[in-house]
Amino acid sequence: MDRDELAPVVEAIRTADSVVAMTGAGVSTASGIPDFRSEDGIWNEYDPNDFHISRFRTDPEGFWRERVRMIEEAFGGDVEPNAAHEALAGLEADGHLETLITQNVDGLHQEAGSEDPIEIHGNGQRVVCTGCERRSGVDPIMDRVRDGETPPACERCGDVLKPDVVLFGERLPEHELFRAQSAARSADVFLAIGSSLTVEPAASLPRRAYENGGTLCIVNLDRTELSERAAFDFRSDVTEVLPRVEESL
């Protein structure tokens, strides 16, 4: 894809008062993180019911053992931000991106330099206490589970720790969802990046932007349900498109 093809998008971003981006699994897979719902996705290897909130409540010991095994097998090895993460952080630093929303829970946007992404599905690099709601890093907790502490308990109040992500059967965090909806509603340009736009309520955000007069731009390898409504629909690698957009701006 050359700069001429991207020129209209670049101009739309340049002249917009509010640019919002939402990222999905297609941004993380470029860093070597498997997605969840494709033919080779995680849910073909693991039973999603094992990670349901009801399983966590009734069998926290088994939940945590399975969670650690899944993380080790599916997410083993070091992963780093890729060119798409870095381009989005650059757009934000240069004042071209007002709000970043992500469906991903890997924390790579922060590692790339994004200041305050709205994490509508939480962050797998943290745990949260089910009692006092204290948050802390996940790595020491994983070690404690490996050493036999199942379920891991909060050192402050003694209640069970939970991954700070939205499990099956849980509602999205209200504050983050409200922020995301408000940003989408006021967006002059909405960039939907690496998302199939099938998981609700995240999929409703670009639709909300479009219905409120925003210019919708989709960057995804496959067609999405909103492709027909998008002003720009690039079936391309996010790690190629976004750096070129940033360079042009």
Short description:
It contains ten helices and nine strands.
Structural summary, described in words:
The protein is of the alpha/beta class. It is 37% helix and 16% strand. It has 10 helices and 9 strands. The strands form 2 sheets. Strands 3-2-1-7-8-9 form a 6-stranded parallel beta sheet, sandwiched between helices. Strands 5-4-6 form a 3-stranded antiparallel beta sheet, covered by helices on one side. Helix 9 links the parallel strand 7 (189-193) and strand 8. The two termini are 16 Å apart.
Query: Helical percent range?
Result: 25-40%
**SSE series:** HEHHHHEHEEEHEHEHEEH
Main β-sheet, spatial strand arrangement: 3-2-1-7-8-9
Summed over residues and divided by their number, the pLDDT gives a mean of 93
Beta strands, count: 9
**What's the shape?**
elongated
Structural topology:
Blueprint: H1 3-15, E1 19-23, H2 25-28, H3 53-58, H4 60-74, H5 83-93, E2 99-102, H6 108-112, E3 118-119, E4 122-129, E5 135-137, H7 139-146, E6 161-165, H8 174-185, E7 189-193, H9 204-211, E8 215-219, E9 232-234, H10 238-248
Parallel strand pairs: 1-2, 1-7, 2-3, 7-8, 8-9
Antiparallel strand pairs: 4-5, 4-6
Descriptive keywords:
single chain; 249 residues; alpha/beta; 3-stranded antiparallel sheet; 16% strand; elongated
